[in-house]
Amino acid sequence: MKPIRVTSEKEFERLRDRIDLETSDAADHFYLLKGLDESSEDYCLEMNESSTFWHLTFIAHRDAVLSRLCLLYDQYDGALSLGRFLLTVKANRALFSDAACRERLIGNPHVDALVHDRAIDDSELDREVASVSDADPLVAKLSRLRNKVISHTDADTVRRGTPRFWLPVQDIETLLSRARSITSKYSLLYRASTYGRMVGTDDYKATLRWLRKALSSHRAQIDKEVEQMGIGERWKRKPE
User: In whole angstroms, what is the distance from residue 77 CA to residue 49 CA?
Assistant: First the structure.
C-alpha cells in the first residue's frame, strides 16, 4: 500500500475531511443502532405494532456501520482508507510543522496553545499503520466479512449452506474506536478541529415516546368505541 499523491495542502485537506466524515458517519449509525437496541426491550410492544419497519431499520443501520468500516479499513491500493491516509500523513509531514499550522490558524487567538507540541512520533505512527492493516487479526476478520458478505456474496458459502458470520458488537466498537482515535488525532494536529457527534443523535428517544403516546391514545379510542357499542357488556354476560 502506498501513500496518496497530493500536490497541495488543499488536496490533503480534502482527504482529511472525507475520512474524518466517514468515521463520524459510521459512529452516528452505530450509536443510533445501539440506542434503538437498548430501547427495544422497554418499547417492545410499540415496536411489535410495526415489526417489519423496525426489523428493516435495524438491518439498514447495521449494514451502514459495517459498510463504512469496510471502506475505512479497505486494503485496496487505490482507496482512501485509514492505512493510505496514515501513509500520506507520513509522506507529508511538512504540512504538520509549526510554521504550516500557524499559517493555517492565522487569526486564531489561541494559536500558541494549539500549535504546541505537535510533533508526530514515527514509532507511534508505524503502530497505527499496522493496526489498520490486514496484519491485525480484527482487521483481517473485517476484510473477510467484506469479501464474503458485504461487498460480495460468497458462492461456496451459499452452496454449502454455511451460515453467514457477522462481527460481534465488541469487535465493531473496537474498530470504530480505533478509527475515531486516528482521524480525530490527525485532524486536531492538522487544523485543531474534528467532526463531533451529529446533532440530534438521540432523537429516536422522542420518536419512541411519541409512538407510545399515539398507540396508547389509539387503544383508548378503540376501548371507548367498544364500550359505546355495548360489545363489552355483552361479552361480560354469563350464558343462561
Answer: 47
CA–CA separation, 42 and 219 (whole Å):
18
Coil, helix or strand at residue 172: helix
The three-point CA angle 39-42-48 to 5° equals 90
CB atoms within 10 A of CB 133: 18
pLDDT digits (tens, 9 = 90+) for 192-228: 766 666 677 788 888 888 888 888 787 777 767 777 7
| 55-65 as b/e: b if 16+ CB within 10 A | eebeeebbebb
How far is the C-alpha of 61 from the C-alpha of 42, rounded, in Å? Answer: 20
* Contact of 125 with 90, CB cutoff 8 Å: yes
Give me the helices (H) in the chain, please: 9-39, 44-48, 51-72, 82-91, 98-104, 111-114, 122-131, 137-145, 155-160, 169-191, 203-229, 231-236
Provide the grid cell at 7: 500536490
Where is average pLDDT lowest: 25-34, 161-170, 186-195? 186-195
